[in-house]
Amino acid sequence: MTELVRLNIDAGGVAHLTLNHPPVNALSDQVRADLAAAFDKAEADDSVRAILLLAEGRTFPSGAELNELDHPIKDPSLSALCNQIELCSKPVIAAIQGAALGGGFELALAAHYRIASANAHVGLPEISLGLVPSAGGTQRLPRLAGAAVALEMMFVGKPVSAPEAQRLGLIDRTTKGDLAPAARAYAMELIESGAGPKRARDCRDGMADPAAFQEMIGKYRDKAHKNPVKTASRIVDCVEAAQLLPFEAGLNCEKSALEDCLKSGASRALRYVFQAERFAARVPEADGAQPRRVSRVATFGAGPDAAGWIVALLDAGFHVSLHARDEPSRTGVAEQVIAIYDQAVDRKKMQVEQEAERLGRLSDRADDTALSQADLVLVVGMSNVPTVEPICKPGAIMAISVPPGEGINFELLERPADAIGVQAPVSAHMGRLVELLGGQETAPDVLQTTAQLTRRLNRVAVLSRGEEGGLGAAVWGACVWAAEAMADMGADRATIDNALSEFGFQKLPFGGKEIRGHARTHFTADEICQRCLAAMANAGALLVQAGIARRPSDIDVVMIHGYGFPRWEGGPMMHADLTGLLTVKRTLTVLMEEDADFWAPSNLFDELIKNGKTFAAISRE
User: What class of enzyme is it (predicted)?
Assistant: First the structure.
């Protein structure tokens, strides 16, 4: 069994504590226990003059394992471990490579000195999970760098580069060379200079101007009030405590805030979505399959859909050959691509040189030579498949773009093993979601290749059964149907949109237009949301029941990334879990009096209720 923490003491008296917990050196309960024991041993050894904390692999620790948050934390907690490190009587140096995020960065902040690879990053992204930092980050960071830096890092959650962190006073030194020898040399330098522990808890650099500190507290408290996730307010409370309270009392404030956040529905939803996105990225049907080589890409088709895919491919670094049925169609697509890039330049989102470089990788060909040589051909619309399929070389992947709600008729294809559907709810260059529509005969390596290509496009890919027209269109269609049914009963359309907008929806059934009439029936905002959410959850359950969706969490990923469902509500399936499946089923049963065919609950509700399960639970199976 591999040691999770290795302790080696070199001739210079430097104790090397090396974490080895692939793939991301997560600070699990066993890692924490082993690390605490190694620190005890190193501190007690009279030959040790400094302790160097390193990590194997590509990255410094990434924080605790997410599934531990749903259970009582085993000792030592990460907060207790950080206190142990900080209170060590010998200088502790953290050597950071890759990314030190969340608990990993808190571990580094507890060390007395920090050295990092120049390409490393550090950050506290816990707000994306609806959590506050849990191991002293809210107390140490503002002491080192002030309220503005601490609050911005914790509010935004994005990592900062090592050079920027050094400028902010969070890292003492960066190196462009090999980290381990540079860190060891730094440790020896500290030993020879007689430097002792330099504890963040004792630092006051970030609090030199109390008035400016409080000004930032006020500024970010105003921001927090506008944030639908209450975690933001608790972060402000904790950072303010760093200024007003002793260090240990501040840690208690942080602990209380974490406990409150863990119980919140928003945090449960955000943590669920984080895992759901990882589940969606797994394609077990393609396990073990080697992706096909894709170096030449061609598109066939016209209109905005073709232009959007071309821009997405060019943005990802591909050379693209543009083809269509006739010259006017090809010219039209090329002009649309140029217009998209011109607009990006006008809006200062792209440099002229970047536009020229990308357009330089686009070729507009009248003949079929490039089409016949392409490794992947993106065909816009099923109607173009009969023209393109005979031209494709053996082994070429044919990715067929169809609009939401339209499936792929794989029976019409001569080579269904080489084909897959791709579906984007908005123009492919703008949206974050691509639904992959696989057929029964789609080859595993085609699934693997298109999933990897989608990630290269910086898109979220979700696979479903391709004949049915995708997940998002069905679930969003149910929401629209429920909204239109209320409108038919006399509800005001703008009121319906406003209720869903207040809930957090970015996409609205009636487009947010100010369409008003004489409302004959009054629905409260809660009733509007209840009906639309129940309709979406039921549509999703029917997709799972029919085997069209692989798991409920895939539906939530699709709705969040493609249809504007608020992330902090977890998607329609997770929201049903949080509401209670029995409650949702009762709502559907009552609404059957209005339309039994539409509102009839999926049998999956009864099955889950009977077995005490949830949509989230079966997503993990």
Answer: lyase
- Which one-letter amino acid corresponds to residue 30? Q
For the chain, the C-alpha Rg in angstroms (whole number) is 28
**pLDDT digit string, tens, across residues 320-361:** 999 999 999 999 999 999 999 999 999 999 999 999 999 999
Structure tokens at 32: 């924490």
Active site members: 106, 126
560 touches 568 (CB < 8 A): no
Q: With contact defined as beta carbons under 8 Å apart, do 170 and 198 qualify?
A: no
Q: Measure CA of the first residue to CA of the last residue in the chain; give whole Å.
A: 27
What are the angstrom distances between the C-alpha of 498 and each of 229, 482, 487, 506, 515? 19, 15, 13, 11, 11
Contacts of 253 (CB under 8 A, 6+ apart): 138, 237, 238, 241, 245
Do 361 and 341 form a contact (C-beta atoms < 8 A)?
A: no
Instruction: Tell me the DSSP string of 301-331.
Output: --HHHHHHHHHHHHHTT--EEEE-SSHHHHH
Domains and CATH numbers, the chain: 5-263 (3.90.226.10), 287-468 (3.40.50.720), 472-620 (1.10.1040.50)
- Rounded CA-CA distance 88/382 in Å is 67
Using alpha carbons, select from 533, 3, 439, 188 the residue that is nearest to residue 541. Answer: 533
Residue 452 dihedral angles phi and psi, to the nearest 5°: -65, -40
